[in-house]
Amino acid sequence: MMEHERMRGWRAAGIGGWLALAALALGASAPAAAGDLAGPEFAAGSGLDASISQRGWHNRAAVEQRGIDQLARLGQQGIGNRIDVSQNGYHNSAQVNQQGNGNLVSLDQRGGANLANITQRGDERVAQIEQFGDHNRVNLVQGPHSPNISLSQRGNGNVANLVQY
């Protein structure tokens, strides 16, 4: 597999860290974002892996993946964290871990064989999850204080395991 076909891990640290990754199928390449966003250009079709780790204040990460066999691993520690994930294709998987105050995850998965594993610990936690397609599965754990979940699954073979404490 060529180097540009597989996304590598990226790190952003500090105050107001903003990182965005985008991957497009069929070998098309496009900038990850414009303006204040940090991120390289990608060209990929299958086996899309994105790994992001952020520590600090007011972290924001956005991942968009299109294609086959996609994996997004995101971790944030700090205050005021936000993660936006959009996956479109087949065999989508997102693993999200947020620790700190004021965490938000927005996840949109479209296609087949979708899986989301989300863990949020801290004070204000919000998880907004939408899955469209067949064989969707969500495992979500939210720690103490103010848990908030919005979950929509459309398709066949859906399973949701939610734990709030």
Proportion in β-strands: over 45%
Termini, distance in Å? Answer: 43 Å
Report helical residue fraction. Answer: under 10%
Poorly predicted parts: 1-43
Specify the structural class: mainly beta
Query: What is the subunit organization of this protein?
Result: single chain
Number of strands: 13
Largest sheet: 11 strands, parallel
**Helical segment tally?**
0
Q: What best-fitting shape do the alpha-carbon axes yield?
A: globular
N to C succession of SSEs: EEEEEEEEEEEEE
Average pLDDT taken over every residue: 77
What's the alpha carbon Rg, rounded to whole Å?
Answer: 15 Å
Counted up, domains total 1
List keywords for this structure.
mainly beta; 11-stranded parallel sheet; globular; 165 residues; two-stranded antiparallel sheet
Architecture overview:
The protein is mainly beta and 165 residues long. The protein has one domain (3-30, 41-164). 0% of the residues lie in helices and 67% in strands. The protein has no helices and 13 strands. The strands form two sheets. Strands 1, 2, 5, 6, 7, 8, 9, 10, 11, 12 and 13 form an eleven-stranded parallel sheet that branches. It is globular and about 35 Å long.
